[in-house]
Amino acid sequence: MKDKSLILLRGLPGAGKTTLASLLVKNRMLSCFSLDSYFTNEKGEYQFDYKRNHLAYKACQSNVEEAMQMEESIILVDQTFALLWEMQPYLDLAKKYEYQLFVCTVENRHNGKNQHGISDEQVLKMAKGFSVEILPEDLREG
Fold it and tell me: What residues contact 10, with CB distance under 8 A and at least 6 apart?
């Protein structure tokens, strides 16, 4: 069996998830899937549309599953994953396709600002529900 890994990069907006993902992908043959790409137009401008948010989540999950079906060895997912249940579909996919799951929390230690126009108030609201410590029992078996 080929070693296969799914890496979930999680953190609040502005933490540096996308920057870290870019560094990891650079000069490597890795697949990286992000909700941001769903809201980025042809000019590279980010245009979030709350009404399409659920479609972005589904598209990201579908793209990850497609990559797993092709047995790509390392897959990165760049999302906030502020709430534990948001990770569950990926846990289920990792189990189904026999991928090792890694959850990496990216913290804002560089005083970065999010680039998507999310207000400081909204980030603080997200932070209150953000689970920093994740234990195996926090994630249900698929």
Answer: 17, 79, 80, 81, 82, 87, 103, 104, 105, 106
